[in-house]
Amino acid sequence: MKLKQYQTDTLSVLRRFFEQARMAGPKGAYEAITKEPDQAKRLGRYGGTYTPLVELPTVPYVCLRLPTGGGKTILAAHSIGIARDAWVEKEYPMVLWLVPSNTIRLQTAEALKNARHPYRQALDEAFDGRVRVFDIADFTHIRPHDIRDHCCIVVGTIQTLRVSNTEGRKVYSHNENMEPHFTALPKTLPGLETLEGGGVKFSFANLMHVHRPLMIVDEAHNAVTGLTREMQARVNPSAIIEFTATPRLNSNILHSVAVAIPAVDTEMV
Question: If you compute the radius of gyration of the chain from its CA atoms, what whole number of angstroms results?
Answer without folding.
Answer: 18
